Amino acid sequence: GDSVTQMEGPVTLSEEAFLTINCTYTATGYPSLFWYVQYPGEGLQLLLKATKADDKGSNKGFEATYRKETTSFHLEKGSVQVSDSAVYFCAPQGGSEKLVFGKGTKLTVNP
Amino acid sequence: GAVVSQHPSRVICKSGTSVKIECRSLDFQATTMFWYRQFPKKSLMLMATSNEGSKATYEQGVEKDKFLINHASLTLSTLTVTSAHPEDSSFYICSAPRTGQGETQYFGPGTRLLVL
Question: Which chain B residues touch A51 with a CB distance below 8 Å?
Fold first, then answer.
């Protein structure tokens, strides 16, 4: 079945630092790829997505590119803020609409 | 935007009792909903797919008789933890995909269950 390997945290950065959270997946066919974010005390929210190879998803300064050749969907942000502190989940989605979640990466950004 | 609610947000119960958790899509209809369980510092584990008008589809290793799912309408799915035990204590989350939103799923805020 589908699976995902996500960089495990926790990750601690200073404000304005560069962020990369690695994500690789295994899946049959061509899944859609998602990054979800869970802020403290809140439910999961969609951060960004890409539905086909070479697509770049972007939102709130975060970006991730669907790399079919390396089966990766790494999350990046050029300059993180304290408000970005959260847990980030990478998740491929197959044809059945089922999401397969990574273990999550907790990010803490210090002022 | 689309909103999915869950009720209750927190519940504490005695071992052996049953607990019902509701998941509602507030401004869209959902023929399918998903139920997840999230352990501390762990990822979300898909438990089952709730299908309106038919039986739920359970993931391997999830006890059907333990976790009863009923998709009563196009906006409501319920998860009942029957004869709860301390090991059932967890964070339960539902999600619903919205047709026309490019496969995006909307998540409920979760229900914290503590079984004493």
Answer: 102-103
